[in-house]
Amino acid sequence: MKRVYVNEEWCLGCHLCEYNCAFANSGMKNMAMALKDQAIFPRIHVEGDDKITFAVSCRHCSDPICVKSCIAGAISKQNGVVKINREKCVGCLTCVLVCPYGALAPGKDGAMQKCELCLENACGSPACVAGCPNNAIVYEERGNEK
Question: What pLDDT, in 10s, does the model give residues 4-49?
Fold first, then answer.
């Protein structure tokens, strides 16, 4: 299965992946209208310090602990993609606590959100990959997936 991978050696820490993600999941056609003067809630997050930065997103684990721990049954795995039914989510943050990668965060409405590979929005492929100016984020299949 194709997944999003990050090469931290190439990450500039520019946060463009976050803006492209927030825009792709906004449902709007104009980026300026979607993001100007708005708090953004991307499904990918840039972390790091002065020496190294990297984007953090869902790894779509083969045996995701977030699915097992969700008390509302809002998280499921469908065709290899870990997804959140935001209408079922009660915002308890249990998934945030158990995710070893820090890939989940509350959205604007308090329901959890995470990378779902942009499969449900107009992009059809991850917007963070397309928006990375240094190609530090890639969407590919690798043989060492577990």
Answer: 999 989 999 999 999 999 999 998 999 999 999 989 999 999 999 8
- 65 and 96 in one domain? yes
| Side-chain-facing half-sphere of 33: CA atoms under 13 Å | 5
Same domain, 53 and 120: yes
Q: Are residues 106 and 146 in the same domain?
A: no
Which residue carries 């190609």 as its tokens? 135
Task: Report CA-CA distances (Å) from 59 to 26, 67, 81.
Answer: 22, 13, 9
Q: Could you tell me if 2 and 73 lie in one domain?
A: no
136 pLDDT more than 70: yes
**Quick one: 108 and 68 in the same domain?**
yes
Tell me what the pLDDT averaged over the chain comes to.
Answer: 92
Burial 79-114 (b: 16+ CB within 10 A, else e): eebbbbeeeebeeeebbbeebeeebbbebeeebbbb
pTM (two decimals): 0.88
H or E element in which residue 124 lies? none
pLDDT mean over 87-92: 96
User: Domain range holding 91?
Assistant: 61-113
Domain count, the chain: 2
